[in-house]
Amino acid sequence: MALFGPSDKELKATAKKEYDKAVSLKGDSRKEDAYRMRIALRARGHIDKLFVEAAQKAEKFNDIAMMCIAEGKPAPEPPKPSNYMKLVTASGEVWSYLPEEYASIVFKYGMLYQGMNVTGPKAISQVQKISDAIGIELKLEQPLIALEFLRNQLEEEGVDVEAEIAALEPDDGEDLDEV
């Protein structure tokens, strides 16, 4: 244990245990629903923050990769997502956990969006599928809305996000692991 409280490693382990506990809850008491919702809100915060982090890292990675290519050097390895993230909440800082398969897809779409390889609505649609999967795992009654900040930004720019997402759906046979 650290001198002034638990170490980051211990806090990360706790975040994973809390996520796993929320997934394994069987009942639907008010207390269990509240616990699931608290973990779901952390997951949504994690998704949003991870998407932004991916976009920022993509920009830096692309700049470095271009310089390496121009110098005849091999491109560096692309950045990887973290399953753990420190979030700031109304009650202070808390660690969040996302399973690797979810974190890597959110991160991938953040990078693709920043590199202009997918549209905003496409990125939102794919990340929403992850949010929906988490909602199912946590047995939530209402879906969590992912990337609300990006939805709002695009709508302010005049994009009808919901219509564009709906237009993607019929021919969107793309698997989340593709691209």
**Are there runs of 5+ residues with pLDDT below 50, and where?**
none
Distance between the termini: 42 Å
Gross morphology is: globular
Count of helical stretches? 6
Q: Reading side by side through the largest sheet, how are the strands ordered?
A: 1-2
Structural class: mainly alpha
- Relative helix content: 55-70%
* Strand runs, count: 2
How much strand content do the residues show? 5-15%
Number of domains: 1
What is the H/E string? HHEEHHHH
Q: In this structure, how is the largest beta sheet organized?
A: 2 strands, antiparallel
How much is the average pLDDT? 89
Radius of gyration, CA atoms, in whole angstroms: 18 Å
Description of the structure:
The chain is mainly alpha-helical. It has one domain. The chain is built from six helices and two strands; from the N terminus they run ααββαααα. Strands 1-2 form a two-stranded antiparallel sheet. A hairpin with a 2-residue loop joins β1 (84-89) and β2 (92-97). α2 runs antiparallel to α4. The mean pLDDT is 89.
Topology summary:
Blueprint: H1 8-24, H2 30-70, E1 84-89, E2 92-97, H3 100-114, H4 120-137, H5 148-156, H6 161-168
Antiparallel strand pairs: 1-2
Task: Give structural attributes.
about 180 residues, two-stranded antiparallel ribbon, single chain, mainly alpha, 6 helices
